[in-house]
Amino acid sequence: MNLISDDELTNLLVQKNIKNWSETIDFVKCLPYGRNSNRQDLSLMLKENRGTCSSKHAFLRKIATLNHIENVKLIVGMYKMNHLNTPKIGKVLQDHHLDFIPESHCYLMINNERLDVTTRNSDFNNLKKYIIQEIEIEPEQVDIFKVEYHQNFIKHWLINNKIDRNLDEIWNIREKCIKNLQV
After folding, report:
1. Residue 181's pLDDT is what?
2. Beta-carbon neighbour count of residue 179 at 10 Å?
């Protein structure tokens, strides 16, 4: 499926000599993992040469929409982030006496198949059994909505599991985990 749109994001890809959907997926998957300076600006993933699960998959969903590529959904999956599925965070969880933290993770569902391009080694099958809940969102929702959804999920998880911590504590531990992933 060739890229046919004349929008800003598609033009940025074409400037990098990327001409179709398959090349777009491969290119995004190979970008280093890292946060962009502004969650709302999907073009920064290309301009800053890095992205997170949110920015990479939101960008791909947006490109699919702009280029009339059908059956591409942006999914947020809440999963049990632990040392087995995310090895670089094991020490942080161990130091804080946690088996896991509920983490929100973006990926695509294309023709009912899940695709994770967060890193070049990402494989959704590594997370599949840890998924707690999935919802479909739009690319513009990776900013405020996704964060609020995630924080509300953690609040309910703390209450329902009678965990004697608060959202701020868990969120700070989570941030340490995410920092380890960027190294």
Report:
1. 79
2. 13
